[in-house]
Amino acid sequence: MLELKNLTKQYDTNMIFKNLNLTVPDGEVLSIVGPSGIGKTTLLKIVAGLETANAGEMFLDNKAVSVSEERNTADIGLIFQDFNLFPNYTVLDNVMLAPITVQKMAKDQAKKLARELLHSLGLSDKEKLFPYQLSGGQKQRVAIARALAMQPQILAYDEPTSGLDEQSTYQVAEIIKDLKKEECDAIGDYTR
Amino acid sequence: MAYLLEILPSLLNGLQSTLGVFFVTLIGSIPLGILVSLGLRSEFFTIRWLLNGYIWIMRGTPLLLQLIFIYYGLGMMGISFPRFEAAVIAFIINYAAYLAEIFRGGLQSVPKGQYDAAKVLGFNKIQTFFKIILPQVIKIVVPSVGNEVINLVKDTSLVYVIGLGDILRAGNIAASRDVTLVPYLLVGLLYLLMTAIVTLVLRNSEKRLNIWR
Ligand SMILES: Nc1ncnc2c1ncn2[C@@H]1O[C@H](COP(=O)(O)OP(=O)(O)OP(=O)(O)O)[C@@H](O)[C@H]1O
Ligand SMILES: [Mg+2]
């Protein structure tokens, strides 16, 4: 469960949001909708620890998490608006790298996990390709696999359906629905 | 032909010093250059200021002068190094300055999103640098570093001024002793051979790095 209390963020004098409160219960999907520039990405970055907030509190499963410092923890997965795949690694390595490097998972085990994830996302035949050889929707699915490989408690998903055709949008929606079953909460943002 | 065989041993002897300076400089200046380029991004003003000063001096004065300063100048002040050591110290600190500028540019061209992606996956700073940032920087800088490496092949001839017996010195001795241009031609050929090998190695690594974009 994720809770944000009285979260406030401003860039210099530009107030992005003030006293924002929200709760994402276990197994729930919360969508944040709003026009471009409203602060959706900023909010997800704060939640994921890439940005600091000026005030407010955050609780992850009732444990306080500082929002005044940046964090490098994998408890919250973030799928970026522009994916940010690692261009120098193959699809398979993109997914395996964090479990091996950060969690010190054995290589064989990480490979197995990565292959399972890629398989469930329909990317089995792409594992040897590099990110530049993928379509937008494929890149997005690799980004999902990469985030899921770290088994995050919360998956924050920036613009899950932007730039996707109807078919891929449907696939992404299915993936998010499946996540609910696997006890990973999700928050996503959508431009309207 | 017989004459070539006669002078070849002394040239090859000189080649050893030349290659020694070349390789030791490469091995020393690349890591130092990377460190300096990271220091240039330090949050401490003093560190950035000192490193910028160092780069300014190294790039703003001739390598020849630096070489003379380290061997003869420091020698006068009681800090003396053997010739080879003096040569590689001068070369390493000079080349590291040029390489640092190149690496700095490379570091700047890796998008911030790469650092963000590594961070949300839990990578620490060292893991991020070695697994994600450095490989991308290397790909960006290989062509410019390659230029510097080719310059280095030829710059090694500057050690002549501190009396280190490099290939140019060996050629010069033979030429003035036997009153002939042949040793110079041979020296020129050996430099061409070295730069050709360096060029091939560079082409090869560029090709290997081109599997991803
Ligand atoms: N690093 C920054 N420094 C200053 N202002 C910033 C910074 N990052 C974002 N902003 C500002 O914060 C506001 C919110 O940006 P954000 O990226 O969160 O919008 P968004 O809701 O995700 O928009 P979009 O739907 O276009 O992605 C914008 O006005 C933007 O200019
Ligand atoms: Mg956004």
Descriptors:
heterodimer; A: 192 residues; alpha/beta; Rossmann fold; four-stranded antiparallel sheet; four-stranded parallel sheet; 8 strands; globular; B: 213 residues; mainly alpha; MetI-like fold; flat; binds adenosine-5'-triphosphate; binds magnesium ion; transmembrane helix (chain B); amino-acid transport (chain B)
Give the chain pair forming the largest contact, with residue counts: A-B, 31 and 21 residues
Number of strands of chain B: 0
CATH superfamily of chain A: P-loop containing nucleotide triphosphate hydrolases
Biggest beta sheet summary of chain B: none
**Oligomer status:** heterodimer
CATH superfamily of chain B: MetI-like
Rg of Cα set of chain A: 17 Å
What portion of residues of chain A belong to β-strands?
A: 25-35%
Segments of chain B where pLDDT lies below 50 for 5+ residues?
A: none
Please provide the ordered H/E string of secondary-structure elements of chain B: HHHHHHHH
Taking the sheet with the most strands of chain A, its summary is: 4 strands, antiparallel
- Overall geometry of chain B: flat
Return the structural class of chain B: mainly alpha
Could you outline the blueprint of secondary structure elements for this entry?
The complex is a heterodimer of chains A (192) and B (213).
Chain A: E1 2-11, E2 14-24, E3 29-34, H1 40-48, E4 55-60, E5 63-65, E6 76-79, H2 91-101, H3 107-120, H4 136-148, E7 154-158, H5 166-181, E8 185-191
Helix pairs in contact in A: 2-3, 2-4
Chain B: H1 2-39, H2 45-60, H3 63-76, H4 83-108, H5 112-120, H6 125-155, H7 167-178, H8 182-209
